[in-house]
Specification:
- InterPro entries: GlcNAc_PI_deacetylase-related, LmbE-like_dom_sf.
- The chain is 34% helix and 16% strand.
- The protein is globular.
- The structure holds zinc ion (ZN).
- Zinc ion binds next to loops.
């Protein structure tokens, strides 16, 4: 970047306001990826904001429901889930579901929100996850999971917004007049990643994750039991944390953690497995 001491230079803010911003493609993605960690941090008094990129209007089996009606239903479900978790703020960007691209408009919307909330940590989809396919030679009856294009687009939009635009005084200069100063995000936590290096012990809040997911009635029906599947998965992740890092947890969420800014006072050497 340029000369910070040049006449008229605008300084980049490095002091966070919020602890975390979770950016998911659809209503329910943040729930699957980070609900228990969000609830844990909220319980610890940390400020957490969730952002939903799309309007969620393609997440259903009934073509006859009008888009606006469906969008509002899903937003309401997301607000209820956030309330269960203690997440105070939810922002809806309402880009068309199923058609999200890494566009100028999408990147700018994220730059604005990150500069507004100044989260220390940003959570989002790992954009490098695309094809999760078992080998048909060894597992002939298993099917693949093709990661949703909106998930990949969200990851790319967020990463491209964070670098360089969020912290660049010459990017989106019109935002400066709105008081949205350039800001440096400290850490990224990518969820649904193949390169996990961080486990969060969510034993305390795993039940809230199940409860939050059950708020998404348009997705799972009114009588869904999300607790069993969520706990099974979180227990598997905890076993993986034990095998890989010797950590003792009953239920865990897993992330690829990436450091982008280390405040000068913080020691440089830090264990990669530091919890919450
Ligand atoms: Zn999704």
């Amino acid at each position: 970047m340029g000369d910070r001491n040049a006449p008229g230079a605008v300084q980049v803010v490095t002091t966070p306001d919020y602890e975390a911003m979770v950016i998911g493609a659809h209503p329910d993605d943040a729930d699957f990826g980070t609900a228990a960690t969000s609830a844990l941090w909220a319980k610890q008094g940390k400020k957490v904001v969730w952002v939903v990129m799309t309007d969620g209007t393609e997440g259903g089996e009934v073509p006859s429901i009008p888009d606006t009606e469906f969008m509002l239903m899903r937003e309401q479900e997301q607000r209820m889930a956030a309330e269960v978790l203690g997440v105070k703020q939810v922002e809806f960007l309402r880009f068309p579901d199923g058609h999200l691209t890494n566009s100028e408009a999408a990147r700018k919307a994220i730059v604005k929100l990150i500069r507004k909330y100044r989260p220390r940590v940003v959570f989002t989809h790992d954009p490098s996850q695309h094809i999760l396919a078992p080998d048909p030679n060894t597992e002939p009856n298993a099917t693949a999971y093709l990661n949703h294009p909106d998930h990949r687009a969200t990851g790319n939009i967020v990463l491209d917004a964070i670098f360089p635009a969020v912290g660049n005084p010459r990017a989106y200069r019109e935002l400066l007049t709105e008081g949205l100063e350039p800001y440096r995000v400290h850490e990224l936590y990518l969820f649904f990643s193949a390169q996990i290096n961080t486990y969060v012990d969510v034993t305390e809040t795993i039940d809230l994750k199940g409860k939050a997911l059950e708020c998404h009635v348009t997705q799972f029906g009114p009588d869904a039991d999300m607790h069993t599947s969520i706990k099974t998965r979180a227990a598997e992740i905890a076993r993986e944390a034990k095998e890989k890092m010797g950590l003792d947890m009953q239920y865990a969420e897993a992330f690829r953690r990436i450091k982008l800014h280390v405040p000068p006072a913080e020691p440089q050497e830090e264990a990669p497995t530091e919890m919450a």
